[in-house]
Design goal:
about 100 residues; Alpha-Beta Plaits; four-stranded antiparallel β-sheet; 3 helices; Tscrpt_reg_AsnC/Lrp_C; Dimeric_a/b-barrel; sequence-specific DNA binding; Lrp/AsnC family transcriptional regulator
């Protein structure tokens, strides 16, 4: 699994709508509204590195109200949580 953290600057008047639309994109696991220089942070988890090119530039960046994005790809996860198992719940084998 490939994980990317996407920092999103959005039109301030549209932050809730932007967050909902980004969260609905396949491959986006979570969207957080945050304080500071950003408006939203999206966690993108996909099977293959190439899938990021579909999720982020083709979908996230095209949501009306997204002003700009900055993407950070994770190399390793340092966590006691089994993220792979958590995100496979409810999925059929082979999907």
């Amino acid at each position: 699994m490939v994980t990317a953290i996407v920092f999103i600057k959005a039109d301030v008047a549209r932050i809730p709508e932007v967050a909902e639309q980004v969260a609905a994109i396949e491959g986006v696991s979570e969207v957080y509204s945050v304080t500071g220089g950003l408006d939203l942070i999206a966690m993108v988890r996909v099977a293959h590195h190439e899938d990021l090119a579909t999720v982020i530039p083709d979908h996230v960046n095209r949501v009306p109200g997204v002003v700009s994005t900055e993407t950070h790809i994770a190399f390793r996860a340092y966590s006691s949580h089994d993220l792979e198992a958590a995100f496979s719940l409810g999925q059929e084998d082979g999907i």
